[in-house]
Amino acid sequence: DAGVTQSPTHLIKTRGQQVTLRCSPKSGHDTVSWYQQALGQGPQFIFQYYEEEERQRGNFPDRFSGHQFPNYSSELNVNALLLGDSALYLCASSGTPALNIQYFGAGTRLSVL
Amino acid sequence: SQKIEQNSEALNIQEGKTATLTCNYTNYSPAYLQWYRQDPGRGPVFLLLIRENEKEKRKERLKVTFDTTLKQSLFHITASQPADSATYLCAPSNNAGNMLTFGGGTRLMVKP
Q1: Which of A4, A40, A45 sits opposite B99 (nearest CB)?
Q2: Cβ contact B43–A58 (<8 Å)
Q3: Which 3 state secondary structure label does DSSP give B83?
Q4: pLDDT by residue (tens digit) across B54-63?
Q5: CB-CB contact of A33 with A94 (8 Å)
Q6: Helix boundaries (H) for B1-112
Q7: How many other CB atoms are found less than 10 A from the CB of residue A88?
Q8: Which residues from chain A sit within 8 angstroms of residue B103, using beta carbons?
Q9: Residue of B8, B21, B46, B98 for testing the chain A interface, max A β-carbons within 10 Å
Q10: Could you report the per-residue pLDDT of A14-69, keeping only the tens digit for each?
């Protein structure tokens, strides 16, 4: 049973560029959440997708957008990259909305130069 | 605004001792609280969930308490081992919200 998979593992971009990160949820899970984790900090919630719609959003600008596909996989897009966007981007899936236990992937390390 | 505080300083203990990590929250009334473990370069891994009507929850060498009056959760690891060295994150949550908010985490170092 495959867990949450994310790609790519590492990415280097320059300021102003756009980036797309990808995530496949754990088998049987239909809800995908994205988090940003800066070095030495806890994960910060970006948004959550369920049934191909954004269900909830954290305090992130519109430069951060996402999508969920019919097979429940998801993408995170970040436009007009800033140096401060450098972080570990984590995808998590869940299958029990009431408890919201998150199963995380290994993350994508994004470096913006 | 909601605030979750975990000791940002690393906790260093000797192998075999009990490690106790603290999670305090303010402006929050969580229905339950989750604890996760995160190793360097990896995603967090779910460990335990405790509900507001549960005072204590155990799983093997792990024990979590939840005091809604003090607005605090304690996470204990008994008979700690070097393999327990990691960062531990707490995340209070409620039934209505889908968003999971994490504390900053506490790094635990268990020395042999």
Answers
A1: A45
A2: no
A3: helix
A4: 989 999 999 9
A5: yes
A6: none
A7: 19
A8: 42
A9: B98
A10: 999 999 999 999 998 999 999 999 999 999 999 999 999 998 899 999 999 999 99
